Amino acid sequence: MVFARSNILGTGLPCPPHVQPDELVAMRAIDGGAKRMSEPSQAPLLQLSKISKRYGGVAALDQVDFSCRGGAVHAVLGENGAGKSTLIKIISGVVRPDEGAIFLDGHHVSFATPAEATRQGIVGVFQELSLIPDLSVEANICLTSPPSRIGIVNLAAQRRFARGLLKRVGCVDVHPGELVRNLSLSRRQMVEIAKALGRKPRLIILDEATSALTGEDVNRVYDLLARLRKEGVAIVYISHRMHEIAHLADECSVFRNGRNVASFANGDHTANEIVGMMIGRDFKHVFPERRAPNRAFHSAIEIDRLSWMDRVKNVSLSIGAGEIVGLGGLDGQGQRELLLALFGVLRGVTGTVRVNGVDVAISSPRTAKSAAVGIALVPEDRKTEGLILPMSIRDNMSLASIARFVRRLVINRKSECAEIDQQVRDMAIKTTNTDAAVDTLSGGNQQKVLIAKWLMTGARILLLSDPTRGIDVGTKQEIYALIRRLADQGAAILFYTTDYAELIGCCDRVAIFYDGSVRRELRGADITEHNIISASLALEVTADGDPETPAQ
Amino acid sequence: MSNVRLWLAQNYAPILTAVVFAAMFGTYIGESSAGWKVAILDTAANNAVVLAIVAMAQTLVVITRGVDLSAGMIFIMANCIASALVVGSPGEVGLGIFGVLLAGTAAGLCNGLLVVLGRLPPIIVTLATGSIFSGIALSIRPTPGGSVNESLADFMTSDIFGAIPVSLILLLAIIVLIWVPFRMSVIGRYCYAAGSAESAAYMSGVPIGRAKLVAYTLAGLLGGIAGLFVTFVTDSGDAGASVGGTYTLNSIAAVVIGGTSLYGGVGGAIGSIFGAFTLRTIDDLLLVFRLPPLWQPLFQGFVLLCAVSLGAVRIFRLHNRLDGFQ
């Protein structure tokens, strides 16, 4: 097995680990074909003209022009809050614009509901899954208009239809009668895409469609997109993964502050320039500096032969006080489960955990956060596991540490508020009122609240599960700096991330997971994309470099 | 083969309820001094079918993640109307039956409209409308009384071929004519979708309002049928508020025992029917074992807790505690 070490498409970005050079060549050929098919003279399938949308006083979209053509992938980039999600909500009929006009095939249209947009051939695959967990895969795929006669569903035809679509997305191993509830997240996302295809889209919107996918399923989506493009379907593609966009897109539009800053053909701008457009500043010193690499750490937590079911296998790892240890590898190799096991969420965990040299039995998050153990977990899903959205910023922040503020059965509001205000200042959380519900904040600020909540417990061991997922570039940088600051203050940090740039830029040491165990530990100068990718794919590496590196 | 396994996995709750009922009913027949007699079967079936139909009505609403606190009140309202209208010549009887069913359907439609158009919580809407239906029933029958066409009543509460109670055939007809088409229909699927994940259903373009309206309206129709049938059994109308309340709560219990999730989107009327049968058989069992009737609520509560606990057993098998939260 070989893989590309070189940057792809001259973007300066590394090749995704799951794409092999042959495939890249194949994709590129399709790229070329699609581009020839879609010369500028071709009329756009969908055109938005001077679209504006305001929420309260804030303009989510401001006089936006946008168009996309059949047989082309149009990538939409931008920080969170740049207007991407409002844009696709308007295209797919979820919200109506305040001003402006939408043209489909040159005809003026307006959609009151998602169903109307679907009837016109516009189908969205959204981040929040639109599947019904208690219905079967086939019922979900045929949800709104199953094959039927006089209102009665034709089960046999439905199954044939579902089988065909599952085959089309490359998921023949999914039984159409299985409940969606029983599928893995990655498989659900694939069913979601199959469902969208079943509506015969002329325009398909993929919103972070690959963020929940395993490597194999990502490749299936790439194949599918190539086929759809050949068939002349227009694809609007939203992703935070720059290498995906460089790899898939024909055209790109960059959004910032509710405006379409620029639309251009893929390859016209480098990734650095694109990021510059997104944040309006240079994308260089993203990661804070490390102090003296390869220095020795005093071990804060030692994990010894930890196992859980068949997902975590004999993991031994120690993290020093002041050290940031990254968990890498392909998605779903047991990294999340390791963090959950350390936080006492999983049942039936074997092996030992020592904190400051003392054996601890962590049976619940309550024990984990207790003073004797002092572990905090910042979960990846801040909306369900991290925060209680309708509760105030203040109450969320003190939720995990509220016991500290209780004097004679009463919460001491004064000391609570003082500490919370301090955190808000330290973390630069942008809010004027900490009594406002936390769901009024932007994603990045919500993430800061979540981290602050766990810092307030005084935990010295921090488990971070993909803390920058779905967050804008600016906030990401702040979080990197924060993590480094915490480490410098003596915290032991276990940092799971799916973005290997973060492993390289942020971590003192990196443990690459493969199939539930640590495949390789990298430190210092060995933390390179090359080593990370080869270990993630479980490739053998010799001492003097990688003999399998393809010819440059 | 895999299809059979999936079917079993997705229908274990109603199957289990049916098995429990069969065991209890078998014990009852075995212990009964009279033994297996069609007359005993008729009586047992007549009582059980009334609750079973109300439980079916409740199921339709629960599937959409609602709850129908007016189910018992629609039922007694229909009972009182039937005790006044279903008399006289065959033509008048026919019209009377139509009127009763129409009243039930209209009551269900009212609930549906308030929930869908008013966007009000079902529990409050049906609490309020239940009061109103109960008031209508009282104004028709301030005291228990009235009557019903006798020959029709006799036929409906007897048996055919000396073996099969007519009430069971009525229940079967309701299953075949109302439940199965609903379950197989597109609108039925919309109801399940809306109950399981309303926002996902909306994002998929499911007409949620229409689906709920159909569920509530059909529930009203079933309440009307139950009220009509109970009139044949008792030969009178009774607007006693406690009757309606008891039927409402028992219907919810039957729904839960039959494996329908109060969180919506899971379950079905077949389970609820066996749930209702199970609840009814508790009374009969207490009778044969000569236990004081005071024990009845105790046992009902016990069975209900067992049913709910069975659904919760999976919590102990979870390896990831997060999977235990809804």
Q: What report would you give on this structure?
A:
- Chain A is built from 18 helices and 24 strands.
- Chain A has 552 residues and is of the alpha/beta class.
- In chain A, helix 5 (155-168) packs across helix 6 (185-197).
- Chain A folds into 4 domains: 1-121 and 201-279, P-loop containing nucleotide triphosphate hydrolases (Rossmann fold); 131-198, no CATH class; 299-374 and 460-536, 3-Layer(aba) Sandwich (Rossmann fold); 391-458, no CATH class.
- Chain B has 326 residues and is mainly alpha-helical.
- Chain B contains 15 helices and 2 strands.
- Chain B has a two-stranded antiparallel sheet with strand order 1-2.
- In chain B, a hairpin with a 3-residue loop joins strand 1 and strand 2 (164-165).
- Chain B starts with a helix and ends in a 9-residue tail after the last helix.
- The model of chain B has no long low-confidence stretch (mean pLDDT 88).
- Classes of the chains: A alpha/beta (552), B mainly alpha (326).
Which properties best describe this structure?
heterodimer, A: 552 residues, alpha/beta, Rossmann fold, six-stranded mixed sheet, 24 strands, globular, disordered C terminus, B: mainly alpha, ABC transporter involved in vitamin B12 uptake, BtuC, two-stranded antiparallel ribbon, 15 helices
Terminal residue distance of chain A: 16 Å
Give the spatial strand order of the biggest sheet of chain B. 1-2
Silhouette of chain B: globular
CATH class of chain B: Mainly Alpha
Domain count of chain A: 4
